[in-house]
Amino acid sequence: MLTTLNRIFVVQFYARNAGTFLVIVLLAFGFLSSVEHKALITAALGSPFFLALIFGLWSLYLVKTIAFIHDQLTAPQHLFVQTLWLVPTPTRLALWLCLQTAVMMPIIAYAIWMLQLAGHYRVWGPFSAIVLFVLGLVIVGAWAADYRLRHPAPNAIRLPRLNIKLPYELFFPAYWLRHEPLSLLLTKAVSGLLLAGVCRMYPTDDYDQRLLLIGLLLAVLAHSQVGGQVSEFERRYLLVLPNLPLSWQQRFGRYAFTYGLIWLPELLILLRNCPTDVRLDYVLWLWLAGWGWLLLMHSLAYDRDVLPERWLTGIFTGFIGGLLLIMFGFPVGGWLLVGWVGAVVIWYRSFTT
Questions:
Q1: Mapping DSSP to helix (H, G, I), strand (E, B) and coil, where does residue 245 land?
Q2: What's the whole-model pTM score?
Q3: CA distances from residue 205 to 33, 196, 201, 210 in whole angstroms, order as listed
Q4: Of the residues 127, 246, 264, 291, which has the maximum number of CB atoms within 10 A of its CB?
Q5: CA dist., res. 203 & res. 220, Å (int)
């Protein structure tokens, strides 16, 4: 029984989120060395606020696992799993605990690393907090899965709805916020933390403005899946859109507005954490360059059936190539020009052909 449930929930969870895990690993361990990770963990062990922030990210991961298990339980091909409620309660809870532990393994592995350093520095307060919090995550996840199993169609509380007429440019941001909030939150959290981190790192050593460009590159790559999400959203909900009498300039302008709205929080982060040695106009050029590259990735991904493996390969290749260009001093103005001109040219060719 455990083998069958493992194939339904655990294997499918990691298979479906393989691309997300790959991007996180590349961003986390490709940008930071093990020494820097240890420094972050040490800072978290000494700062309740920083530790609470890590706990918050782990809680978001728990929400993602709960949502996935709920979706699998209600999938038509998995309705036979509903018979699991006939299993004695202790055995059933033990199965859910095993499954939840398996899907939480990335969090548990990182927590073990933190526990090792906490034991080394003999900080038993954070040590106990990490142990209790991880146990709580596993127990809550198992309870939520068992609750949905016993209540396959729970009564929902309906709140009053506020109807607001949205312009077309806000269709996808509103959909992203309402129906895929975890994807939105993770994307903006990774992007914002990367930009804030490089801005805080800038005054600590003899860095130049290339460090900010590296942060911009990573923040843009954190949005690499958004173009595919926009395309999928429109194929599903806006089938009439290709037949509307809109020129390619009008369509591109609308997408530019949408991505400018999505990219706006990064401008606020850059302005808030701008190093004193960096001019304000450079920060604005930096943000405009990122906006152009978001549009370029959108033009490359829009209305194309690109395999996830090929897209991730292209993203990784682009990261290596961009890093080399930054190291050799390619200026921010060049990045801005290539991003915007490339987006316009590719969009024009795609639209006219």
A1: coil
A2: 0.59
A3: 17, 16, 8, 13
A4: 291
A5: 23
Q: Residue with structure tokens 């260009």?
A: 325
Q: What residue spans define the domains of the chain?
A: 2-150, 168-352
Output DSSP code: residue 121.
H
DSSP element (H, E) containing 175: helix 171-179
Q: Do 347 and 248 contact (CB within 8 A), yes or no?
A: yes
Query: What span, in angstroms and rounded, lies between the C-alpha atoms of 247 and 351?
Result: 9
Cα 226 to the center of its chain, rounded Å: 10
Show the tokens assigned to 247.
Answer: 């020129």
Q: Determine the Cα–Cα distance for residues 89 and 27; give it in Å rounded to an integer.
A: 42
H-assigned helices in 222-305 = 226-237, 248-272, 280-301
Average pLDDT of the chain to the nearest whole number:
82
pLDDT, one tens digit per residue, over 118-173 is 888 888 888 899 899 999 999 998 888 888 777 765 554 444 555 667 788 888 88
Which among 347, 323, 349, 192 is positioned nearest to 255, based on CA atoms? 347
